[in-house]
């Protein structure tokens, strides 16, 4: 669904698989972490990677107001900040596609892992 051309943004709870899917689809996010490591993931997406916006929680209600949600949607889909997020996530999409390609780094690491497993099994057989 995220790869559909009409997907202009993704409201994410910041679990790792959701983040990867969004980035590999080239879709910027609104980071809405719930608990545990998801807050760290949200911080990374917004402050370091620059592919997400994060709403402010009203401290007295521990909730996010509808005005804030509207502002986040506009932030991701419009203006210079949204344009920058979309450009950055497109770069990550291209990078991810290269890593997953036949000659990519993910494939190379997979081959290396298989070689290590095979070598360790060969060492065990030789020891017998």
Structural class: mainly alpha
Tally of domains: 1
Strand/helix succession: EHEHEHHH
- What's the overall geometry? elongated
Q: What about the largest sheet?
A: 3 strands, parallel
**Strand arrangement, largest sheet?**
1-2-3
Instruction: Give average pLDDT, whole number.
Output: 83
CATH topology: Rossmann fold
Rg, rounded, reads: 20 Å
Text of the CATH class: Alpha Beta
Distance between the termini: 52 Å
Per CATH, the superfamily is Glycogen Phosphorylase B
Number of strands: 3
Strand portion: 5-15%
What's the helix count? 5
What would your notes on this structure say?
The chain has helices spanning 16-25, 38-49, 66-77, 79-100, 105-127, and strands at residues 10-12, 29-31, 52-53. The protein is mainly alpha-helical and 128 residues long. Helix 1 (16-25) links the parallel strand 1 and strand 2. Helix 3 crosses helix 4 (79-100). The termini are far apart. The mean pLDDT is 83.
Attribute tags:
single chain; 128 residues; mainly alpha; Rossmann fold; 3 strands; elongated
Could you give the topology of this structure?
Blueprint: E1 10-12, H1 16-25, E2 29-31, H2 38-49, E3 52-53, H3 66-77, H4 79-100, H5 105-127
Brief write-up:
This protein is mainly alpha-helical and about 130 residues long. About 60% of the residues lie in helices and about 5% in strands.
């Amino acid at each position: 669904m995220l790869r559909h051309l009409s997907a202009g943004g993704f409201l994410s709870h910041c679990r790792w698989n959701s983040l990867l899917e969004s980035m590999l689809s080239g879709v910027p996010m609104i980071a809405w972490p719930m608990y545990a490591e998801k807050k760290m993931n949200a911080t990374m997406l917004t402050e370091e990677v620059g592919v997400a916006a994060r709403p402010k929680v009203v401290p007295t209600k521990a909730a996010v107001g509808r005005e804030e949600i509207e502002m986040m949607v506009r932030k991701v889909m419009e203006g210079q900040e949204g344009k920058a997020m979309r450009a950055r996530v497109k770069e990550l999409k291209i990078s991810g596609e290269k890593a997953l390609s036949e000659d990519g780094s993910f494939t190379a690491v997979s081959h290396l892992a298989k070689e290590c497993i095979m070598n360790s099994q060969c060492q065990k057989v030789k020891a017998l």
